[in-house]
Amino acid sequence: MGQLFDRIRQRIAEEKYVVGQHASERLEERGIMEWQAVAGFEDGELIAERPDATPNAVVEVRESLPDGAEFKAAWVYLRQSGVAKLVTVHFFD
């Protein structure tokens, strides 16, 4: 476990990622800025990894905001284009 997580981390570090429309809406709704979800991945904690998920392999990551609030971010690896995509975010409460 962790290979997909590492692959997505690498794509994010290389700035080879996109933010989906749904994720963009959830970020705004929850008061999280895009850069916080992107930067938070680096120190994030892997919750689950589903490399065989369809249509795209997915990881769920526990991330933190500067004020200490934690949220879950779902990232997928788009096999065809080789980029990471932020799919959604939500708080744990």
General description of the model:
It is a single chain. Helices cover 32% and strands 38% of the residues. It contains 3 helices and 5 strands. The protein has a 5-stranded mixed beta sheet. The longest helix has 11 residues, at 3-13. It is α+β, with helices and mostly antiparallel strands.
Q: Given this structure, which CATH class is correct? A: Alpha Beta
Strand content: 35-45%
Major sheet size, sense and barrel closure: 5 strands, mixed
Helix content: 25-40%
CATH fold assignment? YaeB-like fold
| E-strand count | 5
How many separate helices?
A: 3
Under the CATH scheme, which architecture would be assigned? 2-Layer Sandwich
Gap between N and C termini: 26 Å
Helix/strand-derived class? alpha+beta
Bulk shape: globular
User: What's the domain count?
Assistant: 1
Low-confidence stretches: none
Radius of gyration: 12 Å
Nearest-integer average pLDDT: 95
Which strand order does the major sheet show?
1-5-4-3-2
Give, in order, the helices and strands: HEHHEEEE
Features:
single chain, five-stranded mixed beta sheet, 38% strand, 5 strands, YaeB-like fold, 93 residues, alpha+beta
Write a concise synopsis of the structure shown:
This protein is of the alpha+beta class and 93 residues long. The chain has 3 helices and 5 strands; from the N terminus they run H-E-H-H-E-E-E-E. The chain has a single domain, classed as YaeB-like fold.
Give the topology, please:
Elements (H helix, E strand, L loop, with lengths): L2 H11 L3 E3 L1 H10 L3 H9 L2 E6 L6 E8 L5 E9 L4 E9 L2
